[in-house]
């Protein structure tokens, strides 16, 4: 049975954190789109997301962290990228970096990871409550449209462990993704953050 609660509940982030810490799968609203969220240190929870979405294990999940200091434990951030992160995080920007040894432990040995600090009060509270990073990916069946409002996620009622009703997402469009593993940097996905604005700083 899926627990469904409102984003506006005063302890919604605490209930979500408890479920994630116990290995559950949460559906949470961000400022971009709705996402599945699990404990980044729980491999079995990660596998649940892949199974629910029918997603290839070759496609990585995105790490969400509460601050740059937390990110640096998991990925190596070059100075240029650090300047961009400081300017655009929290925000609608996912940056791909080389993984540290700790990061490789989380990602099954991947050499790179996408990381985002979202501009979402709820997600930031959730991350601080869990005291761990979370792995996320958009709520949808692979190759279908991402969920932008709570009605879009109801097909996963009874599958996810908790659904947080945040109504319509603010931007309702995925984050922009930039590969910063090596120069020249590559925009992997155009998203709601204008890439022309980013190019001024790359």
Architecture overview:
The protein is α/β, with parallel strands linked by helices. It has one domain (3-199): DHBP synthase, CATH 3.90.870. 29% of the residues lie in helices and 22% in strands. The radius of gyration is 16 Å and the shape is globular. The termini are far apart.
List the helices and strands and how they pair.
Blueprint: E1 3-6, H1 12-21, E2 26-29, E3 34-39, H2 43-53, E4 62-64, H3 68-74, H4 79-88, E5 93-98, H5 101-106, E6 112-116, H6 121-130, E7 134-138, E8 162-165, E9 176-179, E10 186-189, H7 195-199
Parallel strand pairs: 1-8, 2-8, 4-6, 5-9
Antiparallel strand pairs: 2-3, 3-7, 4-7, 5-6, 9-10
Helix pairs in contact: 1-6
Report on the biggest sheet: 10 strands, mixed
CATH architecture, please? Alpha-Beta Complex
Overall structural domain count: 1
Terminal CA distance: 47 Å
CATH superfamily: DHBP synthase
Number of helices: 7
CATH topology: DHBP synthase
The poorly predicted ranges are: none
Shape from CA axes?
A: globular
Please provide the ordered H/E string of secondary-structure elements. Answer: EHEEHEHHEHEHEEEEH
Q: What topology, given as strand order, has the largest sheet?
A: 1-8-2-3-7-4-6-5-9-10
What's the CATH class label?
Alpha Beta
Strand content: 15-25%
The SS-based structural class is alpha/beta
In short:
The chain is α/β, with parallel strands linked by helices and 202 residues long.
